[in-house]
Amino acid sequence: MDRVRTAPPPRVAKDPAAHAAAAEKTVRVRLHRIAHGRSGDKGNRQNISVIPYRPEAWPVVLSQVTEERVLDLFRHRGATSVTRYELPKLMALNFVVEDALEGGVNSALALDTHGKTAAFRLLSMEVEVPADLVDDFPRQPEREERQ
Known about the structure:
Layout: H1 16-24, E1 26-30, E2 35-42, E3 45-52, H2 58-64, H3 67-74, E4 81-87, E5 92-98, H4 118-123, E6 126-130, H5 131-134, H6 143-146
Antiparallel strand pairs: 1-6, 2-3, 3-5, 4-5
């Protein structure tokens, strides 16, 4: 038996004015609050996917997670270029980061030669989102707050 999972409908305030006001308010959060990702390698290329948890987050991810911003995150690793592939039917992005693995598995001296942790770095990127988009997710304290 095939089962299809659908995202829950967005929460709408009973008062339309309250809903409109909440939609206008934005907050700055780390990308992991609204999306998840996976990463891997192919030679000296890093491959990273970003998938929003909810369809309402797709426009945010699409507009703010750009090739330029991703390249800035990985430039310290020697990355030279980034290509972004959009998969709108899946509501996902795939990034190919060139020269980010210090030559690849056999020649790199890095601890993570396969680049499996790169998605975590990308998910640390800050994005501006409608406040009501993050209200449904439990907030995790920032590192400084936990100590």
